[in-house]
């Protein structure tokens, strides 16, 4: 088994498990949701088929037991109750653990016999003896919080995202998909899709499910005969091919049956029947798939004038749907709609052209793609046209899959290019050479930088899609009733940032359910709905993303926070008296601080919010808490969309150069209006008082100013202060490297920047300075 096949299986399985969890949540909230039930059944069936084709029999057997039970539920023989849902969720946890094992070791030795026995018992008797998913074997479900951060873990560590394989490959359009064998496919010759080799198919040749299928007006059916050639895993290859077709078009069915195909039990070729698509479009899709060695496409029915079955459509067309019987309007039908007839003639002409072009198609796909003399081009040549294809847009390959290591390498090269650009400009200025000629290079470098950053962006949904199950489980553990909503999951963030914020968001969500939302009986006493609300909302604000986690629970009590702070020695009573309410709320980020009365499996150890604060800070973001007693709490994470390359203002202090991110600076002025009040230096700006912080004192540098110096007024959302320096040098975009190891905790420093002359400049953190 190739590594690429295993990765593809793992990625698709992980995506399916996430979908399965969310579909189960939908079914739990509405047992009559037929769409959710169909989705659950389909995903379980796909997992079973994929695992069987790959040889992971333990995964396949568990999915098969789930499928059998779900079939009984769908037939109405078993009710959707809490016992059933817990059992299904436990089963999904086992599947998740097995797939994780396969991702890491290539195999799994997890014993799921206990939960399989419970599934059978539930199906046969309608109940489970112990009701906990343990079954006769006494096994327990794998820890369903294994992908969640342990509150007892060190805050120096950050868990990897649950979707490890999905994080390994990304599309340049942000779409993370399962099939990592695209690289192999690109190296294989284009599939032979010669339409002239198609055999005639009649009513007797059609599978019953196809013959009985209903067609709507103007629909037509096509058969694609697909051959894979020599392959070790025909079932897996077939699954990927059918998924590609199903994602784009309405698939009626297959011959042989889908189960048989997924098991790999077919002789060289199999048939896929699709609706309402031209032959050239199907050929285009199949031609793009490197797994397909041979494909031929033929119409089964003409475009029907009225709703009817496929069998009736074949009969009305003369009993066959071969390449000679194109779906055109009947020439002898005086009542035929002229417009319909014209459209059908156009379809006929297009298919005739396709057929004749296929005759002249050479075996060399590269020659075909170079031929622009009117023949049907290969899918990526852009030469295909026809109904539903304006020009060649539909035929072009719109996205490619790139390993993230290549993206990281590209990004590193861009960083080096930015540094080299700075070095070149400084060298030219030092030699007195006009550097205006570098403006075009600056523009190109900037565009390349933006493109490289955009390629690393991944939608927030990549991590938040797993959160509904998390909230459900925490609510069950704590006896709460919670309605969870997510808004803005399409907002994109840099891959690195997205990976790092998963743990903080999990901590905040767990706190919202455990500490925020009250038990149902307590909420009813307060006149609230017994079901609490927790929401996660993401919004884009220029070059930042704000992620808010809100609950309508009890809220934070400032007086209790003060008592806890004094009790734990975090603050003195006099210090607390001088603090504003927003600063009181920020006490929750202090290490070891917790409002929980007792430690539980969910929370209460006092390290969760500390992890949130430290992680967000390391990402050059901010986190703040707003709360109203009795009404609820909102925790807001403000994060940069991308990392590393930032615009920095360079200043001089005592002969040493330092950098301050431009985004932190509101204004730069001369320091000629400083006043002293009660021994403290201040300035007045728009009737607002700003204290002065002299960088020479904060950084222990000698002041060498020969005058008043310069003031940098910091934006209030970061810190209400004005920084004093000797002089301002200039500003430019630089690559900022974060401090690591023991240096990462130094107050006032956020990272370093390498200048063009090789000098390393410290970049200041204005919040902790």
Question: Can you walk me through this structure?
Answer:
This protein has 769 residues and is an alpha+beta fold. It has 5 domains: 3-122, Up-down Bundle (Four Helix Bundle (Hemerythrin (Met), subunit A)); 206-301, Alpha-Beta Plaits (2-Layer Sandwich), CATH 3.30.70; 404-456; 458-594 and 606-640, Histidine kinase-like ATPase, C-terminal domain (Heat Shock Protein 90, 2-Layer Sandwich); 645-764, SH3 type barrels (Roll). Helix content is 39%, strand content 20%. The protein is built from 24 helices and 26 strands. The protein has a 6-stranded mixed beta sheet. A 5-stranded mixed beta sheet has the order 10-12-13-15-14. A 5-stranded mixed barrel has the order 16-17-26-25-24. β22 (710-714) and β23 (722-725) form a beta hairpin. α2 packs antiparallel against α3 (57-74). The model is unreliable at 131-139, 144-148, 150-200 and 319-395 (pLDDT under 50).
Q: What CATH architecture of the largest domain would you give?
A: 2-Layer Sandwich
- The pLDDT mean sits at 74
**Major sheet size, sense and barrel closure:** 6 strands, mixed
Q: Specify the overall morphology.
A: globular
Task: Write down the Rg.
Answer: 32 Å
Number of helix segments?
A: 24
Oligomeric state of shown chains: single chain
Total count of domains = 5
Instruction: Could you tell me the CATH topology label of the largest domain.
Output: Heat Shock Protein 90
Q: Specify the helix fraction band.
A: 25-40%
Strand arrangement, major sheet: 18-22-23-21-20-19
Note the gap between the termini. 55 Å
Low-confidence segments: 131-139, 144-148, 150-200, 319-395
Strand content: 15-25%
CATH superfamily of the largest domain: Histidine kinase-like ATPase, C-terminal domain
Would you report the number of β strands?
Answer: 26
CATH class of the largest domain: Alpha Beta
Instruction: Give the structural class.
Output: alpha+beta
Catalytic activity: ATP + protein L-histidine = ADP + protein N-phospho-L-histidine
EC number: 2.7.13.3
Enzyme class: transferase
Organism: Halonotius aquaticus
């Amino acid at each position: 088994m190739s590594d690429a096949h295993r990765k593809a299986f793992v990625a698709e399985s992980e995506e399916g498990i996430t979908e399965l969890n969310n579909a189960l949540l939908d079914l739990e909230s509405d047992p009559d949701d037929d769409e959710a039930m169909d989705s659950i059944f389909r995903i379980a069936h796909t997992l079973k088929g994929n695992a069987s084709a790959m040889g992971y029999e333990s995964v396949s057997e568990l999915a098969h037991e789930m499928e059998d039970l779900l079939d009984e539920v769908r037939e109405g023989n078993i009710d959707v109750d809490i016992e059933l849902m817990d059992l299904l969720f436990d089963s999904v946890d086992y599947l998740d653990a097995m797939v994780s094992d396969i991702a890491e070791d290539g195999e799994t030795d997890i014993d799921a016999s206990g939960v399989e026995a419970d599934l059978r018992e539930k199906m046969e008797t309608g109940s489970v003896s112990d009701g906990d998913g343990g079954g006769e074997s006494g096994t327990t479900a794998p820890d369903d919080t294994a992908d969640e951060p342990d509150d007892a873990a060190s805050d120096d560590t950050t868990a990897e995202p649950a979707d490890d394989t999905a994080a390994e490959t990304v599309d340049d359009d942000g779409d993370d998909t399962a099939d990592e064998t695209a690289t192999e496919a690109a190296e294989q010759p284009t599939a032979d899709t010669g339409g002239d080799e198609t055999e005639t198919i009649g009513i007797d040749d059609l599978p019953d499910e196809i013959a009985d299928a209903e067609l709507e007006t103007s629909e037509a059916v096509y058969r694609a005969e697909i051959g894979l050639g020599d392959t070790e895993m025909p079932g897996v290859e077939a699954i990927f091919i059918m998924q590609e077709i199903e994602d784009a078009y309405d698939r009626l069915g297959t011959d042989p049956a889908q189960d048989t195909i997924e098991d790999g039990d077919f002789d060289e070729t199999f048939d896929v029947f699709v609706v309402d698509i031209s032959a050239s479009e199907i050929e285009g899709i199949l031609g793009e798939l490197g797994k397909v060695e041979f494909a031929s496409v033929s119409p089964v029915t003409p475009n029907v004038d009225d709703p009817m079955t496929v069998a009736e459509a074949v009969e009305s067309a003369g009993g066959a749907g071969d390449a000679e019987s194109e779906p055109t309007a009947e020439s002898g039908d005086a009542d035929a709609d002229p417009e319909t007839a014209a459209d059908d003639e156009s379809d006929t002409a297009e298919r005739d052209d396709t057929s004749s072009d296929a005759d002249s198609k050479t075996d060399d796909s590269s020659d075909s793609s170079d031929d622009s003399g009117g023949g049907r081009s290969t899918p990526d040549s852009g030469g295909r046209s026809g109904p539903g294809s304006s020009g060649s847009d539909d035929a072009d390959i719109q996205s490619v899959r790139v390993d993230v290591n290549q993206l990281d390498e590209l990004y590193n090269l861009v960083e080096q290019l930015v540094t080299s650009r700075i070095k070149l400009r400084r060298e030219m200025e030092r030699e007195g050479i006009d550097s205006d000629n570098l403006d075009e290079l600056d523009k190109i470098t900037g565009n390349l930088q933006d493109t490289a950053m955009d390629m690393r962006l991944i939608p927030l949904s990549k991590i938040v899609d797993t959160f509904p199950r998390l909230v459900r489980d925490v609510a069950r553990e704590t006896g709460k009733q919670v309605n969870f909503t997510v808004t803005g999951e399409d907002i994109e963030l840099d891959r690195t940032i997205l990976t790092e914020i998963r743990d903080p968001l999990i901590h905040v969500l767990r706190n919202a359910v455990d500490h925020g939302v009250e038990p149902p009986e307590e909420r009813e006493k307060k006149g609230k709905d017994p079901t609490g609300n927790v929401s996660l909302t993401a919004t884009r604000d220029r070059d930042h993303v704000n992620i808010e986690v809100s609950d309508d629970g009890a809220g934070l009590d400032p007086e209790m926070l003060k008592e806890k702070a004094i009790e734990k020695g975090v603050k003195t009573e006099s210090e607390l008296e001088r603090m504003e309410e927003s600063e009181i709320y920020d006490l929750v980020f202090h290490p070891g601080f917790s409002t929980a009365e007792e430690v539980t499996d969910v929370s209460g150890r006092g390290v969760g919010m500390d992890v949130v604060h430290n992680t967000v800070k390391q990402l050059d973001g901010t986190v703040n808490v707003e709360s109203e007693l009795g009404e609820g709490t909102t925790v807001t994470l403000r994060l940069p969309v991308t990392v590393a390359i930032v615009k920095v203002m360079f200043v001089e202090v005592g002969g040493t150069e330092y950098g301050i991110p431009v985004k932190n600076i509101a204004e730069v002025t001369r320091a000629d209006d400083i006043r002293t009040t009660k021994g403290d230096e201040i300035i007045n700006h728009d009737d607002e008082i700003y204290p002065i912080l002299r960088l020479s004192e904060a950084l222990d540098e000698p002041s060498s100013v020969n005058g008043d110096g310069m003031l940098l007024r910091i934006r209030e959302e970061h810190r209400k202060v004005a920084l004093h320096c000797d002089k301002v040098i200039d500003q430019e975009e630089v690559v900022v490297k974060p401090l690591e190891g023991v240096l990462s905790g130094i107050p006032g420093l956020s990272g370093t920047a390498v200048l063009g002359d090789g000098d390393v400049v410290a970049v200041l953190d204005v919040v902790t300075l």
